[in-house]
Amino acid sequence: MTAILLLSVLGGALIGLSAVLLMAFHGRIVGISGILAGVLPPVSADWGWRAAFLVGAIAAPALLLMLGGPAVGFESPVPTSWIVIGGLLVGIGTYLGSGCTSGHGVCGIARLSPRSLLATATFMAAAVLTVYVIRHLVFPS
Amino acid sequence: MKSILLAGLTGLVFGTGIVLSGMANPAVVLGFFDVAGAWDPSLAFVMASALLVTAIGYRVVLRRPAPVLDTRFHLPAKRKVDRSLFAGAAIFGVGWGIAGFCPGGAIPALGLGESSAWIFVASMLAGIAIARMARRSLAAARPQTA
Asked: Per the database entry, which stretches of residues form a coiled coil (chain A) (predicted)?
C-alpha cells in the first residue's frame, strides 16, 4: 500500500512536471483531448509538437520496461462493447467540454480557472455516479 | 526541430507519470470512482501531487513574458461557464465511468500493447470527429447574426 502511494505521488509529480515543461517551452496546456483533436484531420497547423508529445507518451511504458522500472499493472474489467461506448462518449464529451482530466483537472485547476473547476467537479461526479449505478444498482455482484 | 524533440521528451515525462501512478490502469481508476465498494484512493494522490507541482511551476513560468519556443502563452481565452462546458463534462464523466479510460490514461496505455486501450482510443477519436462535424454543420446552418 505504501509503495503504491509513493508511486502515485511520484507519478503525479511527473505529470505536473510535464505540464510545467510544455508551458515553459511551448506555451501550451497539457490537455490530452485537445492535443489529440489537433492531429485528427483536418490537422491543425501546429500538429508537429502535438504528434511528438503523443509519440513520447506512447513510448513511455516501453522505455520504463527497458530501464528496469517497476512492473506496470493493467486490468480492463469491462466488456469490449463498453469500451467502445465509453470511448465515443469520452470523445464527444471532451470536445464539447473543451478538455479532460489533464487539461481541466490539472492545468486548469492549477490556474484556478472557474471553467476548469466546474468541469472537473462535473466529470468526477458523473463518473462516480455512473460507476455506482453500474456496480451497485444494475449489476450488483 | 528543437520544438519537436522537446515535445517528445515532455510526452515521455507525462507518459511515465501516468504509467507509474497507475492511471493507465482502468481497474485502478474505476476503483477510485467506486466509493461504495472497495475504494482505491490512488487517483486522489496522483491529482493532488500533479496539481501541487503544476501550480508552483506555472507561477514561476507564467511570470516570464513568453515561452522559450513561442511568442506567447496559449492560455484558454474563454472565461464564461456555458451549457456546452457543463454538458460536455457530464458526458465525458459518464464515458469515463463506463470504460475506465480517460484520454491521458489511454494514450500511454497504447504503449502497453493492450488491445482495450487501442479500441478505446479509436472510439474516442471517432467521438471527437463526430462532435467536431456536428458543431461545424450547426455553425454553418445558423445564420450569422452576432
From this structure: none
